[in-house]
Amino acid sequence: MTIGEKEMRGNENYERQDLSKRAPKKRITKPMPLNQRLVLEALKRRRHATLRVVVEDLQISRDILKNVFVALEAHGYIERVGKSRSSIGGQPPVVYRWSGKSFPSSAEMNKRSPEVAMPVPPALAALVAGMHAMCCIGRAAA
Predict the structure, then answer these.
(1) 30-107 in CATH: which number?
(2) Are 79 and 54 in contact (CB under 8 A)?
(3) Where does 59-121 have alpha helices with state H?
(4) CA gap 70, 78 in Å, rounded
């Protein structure tokens, strides 16, 4: 077999494949984390806010929210409006606003669907109740 025949054989195998019958790749979307939802809701309420204002409003670490702001800006949920006029020292802080892109509510995170909730077997419920009694009352009394 010559080199030209090998190349031809490889092309024939490629041509035999019917690519139209392959299943399309499934896009798996991760749900939006709760802290991102909370930041978006705070910006939606306030219309314009700096990182510091959102930190004070939500009582979440500044370092965590800094990363959240970066992620939300990269995904197009928030946009920079400009710089604030008030400066505490150094550069004035950046003012952000919600871009109007829809997002899921944080109230959806607290709902658990009934099909997700697993029933607790009676033996496990009795074990947990016994351990709780030992912790609250004492081992001898339980």
Answers:
(1) 1.10.10.10
(2) no
(3) 62-74, 107-110
(4) 9
- Among 86, 84, 106, 81, CA closest to 96: 81
Domain residue ranges in the chain: 30-107
Q: What is the mean predicted confidence (pLDDT) over 98-111? A: 79
Tell me the CA distances in angstroms from 16 to 5, 7, 11, 119, one per residue in order. Answer: 16, 14, 9, 52
User: Percentage of the chain surpassing pLDDT 70?
Assistant: 67
Element (H, E) at 95: strand 94-98
| Edge-first strand listing for the sheet containing 94-98 | 49-50, 94-98, 78-83
Query: What's phi and psi for 94, nearest 5 deg?
Result: -80, 140
CB 37 within 8 A of CB 75: no
3-state class (DSSP) for residue 121: coil
- Among the listed residues 37, 106, 31, 30, the one whose alpha carbon sits nearest the alpha carbon of residue 78: 37
Per-residue pLDDT of 24-62, as tens digits, reads 777 777 788 888 899 999 999 988 888 888 899 888 888
- Residue 46 neighbours by CB distance under 10 Å: 15
